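Co-fold these.
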Amino acid sequence: MKNWPVVPTPYLLTAPALPVFVCFLLIPLAATVLLSFYSWDQYKGIVETITAKNWIEIASDGYFAEILWRTLRIAGAVTLLCLLFGVPEAYILSKMRPLWRGIFLLVVLGPLLISVVARTLGWALLLGSTGILNQAMVRWGLINTPLPFMFTELGVIVALTHVLMPYMILSVWASLQRLDPQVENAALSLGAAPATVLARVVLPQIVPGILSGAVVVFAMAASAFATPAIIGGRRLKVASTLAYDEFLNTLNWPLGATVAVILLVTLLVIILTANRVIERRYVEILK
Amino acid sequence: MENNKSFLVLEGLTKRYGTQTVVDSLDLKIAKGEFITLLGPSGCGKTTTLQMIAGFVEPCAGKIFLAGANLTDVKPNRRELGIVFQSYALFPHFTAAENVAFGLQMRGVPKDECARRVAEMLKLVGLSGLADRYPRRMSGGQQQRVALARALVIKPAVLLLDEPLSNLDAKLREEMQIELRSIQRTLGTTTLLVTHDQSEAMALSSRIVLMSEGRIEQVGQPEDVYARPASPFVASFLGKTNIFFGQVVERGGDHALLVDGELLSMAVAAPVGQVTVQVRPERIRISLDGSAGLKGSVSSRVFQGASWLYQVETAAGAAVVIASNDGSVMAPEGAQVRLSWRPADMIISNGDRT
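Predicted complex below.
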């Protein structure tokens, strides 16, 4: 064996993947960023001159600010709802007997096995103005006119929460699995009431799982396409559907690229900040 | 006032899982200040018994009394027991001091008194310098001490120890045994230890409860149980033992014991017939030139520092002998030897090898 300055094996083993990443991730990303600085003309199409025109347009036009703000607002609400329902659900699951746990885990994860589009259309059928729920409520006289659900923020939030809930549950579940079951008994034996055990012993230990679940859900909600496209439609645009429209309908690729880059950078900042917080506060103690 | 002899009482305590009976109608009285050990192989029900006392497992039948009060239906967080778990079960997000303080906080102990008692307790277990350290940054032995301090600081009526030393290496385990015993003596806390380690049980306890298959086999002081095991199971579980099969015959009005045709004892208190003879390895004398005793040949000899461990092949079966390293001439491997022991050092029970 020669004396290599560094062990070459890991580099050699990962080398074949490198071209894939460069070709299919880094180059397209760089191209998108570059594209956002090109200009576009109704008649000439994409003009390859470097300009900040798109960026200025997005920064100055309230229309774009509104869409971006809505995207983050929806993602935030979805994350909050997933936390509210997912964390207790994961805890309850972990306390179930193995047989029931298996069944309910399947129920929780089941939606992941169905295509997002089919699932979302299901929501539309259930909750649309001619959907089963609205029809039933009107018939029973609970409401006079169908509740608006399609093309509303509430509709998008409900459907996205359903779609993304499994990610939160899985993440919290994973950190619950790492807990020593005796720790809860130890707290009980020291005189803590069950609620105190939850708040002071269990919850602090699964915070990393909750935070990473929240990051995943937030990122996926902010960049979701199918659900806002079907339920929000043209009337309720979010960043991803806006970028899609600019690319495929208006054919203003540079503007679409700018929206995409802004979404990417915003998410990166949020995710990296959250990771920083998790690492600084918890990894030292818990891992 | 309840009798001191029955401070903690288990009455017909039973636990079944499906058709399997894990703890079978257990009766036990534990005196105040006693250090008692539930000893037995894994699956003998000792941990389940501890969990029932702690309140984590609900008994199917039977009652638990503590200082005269029925504890059976009391919630685990109201039982006022201190528990040290096998995994230590420390709160990983709390420092050592915060771990110890938890039980006091739950009792609403004022801050300054809490700080004082935590400091005292950490000092008692020798961890004063590590109060602000997190469990993950501590060694197994240090975590063990934190767990002990956390359980003791609430001044529990009874301290329950669930295999507390099994995760430590041999040297540390011995140190902790000595320390555990001295701490228990200092505080006088009634203590119940669960272990499968017989040397730990003998080193620590004032009484041993030997369990097998959910039942109590024998209760007694370690030296008594060791010297007079009630059954071959107890004898083989508590230390090593040799079992020989022999006959008791009538000879000149006395009952004589024969093993492998050799006369081993002239006057035994056993009826005539087939018998089982148990002798501890360290009670067997091994001699090169003796004329009396069981004949055998040394098949292996292992030096252990303070003693030699012999395997001797005899016509009555293989025997283990521990000979103290007292400077006398030791039989080499392959030597023809005689094994003998004092009549008082053997236990004769009726029945042959079936």
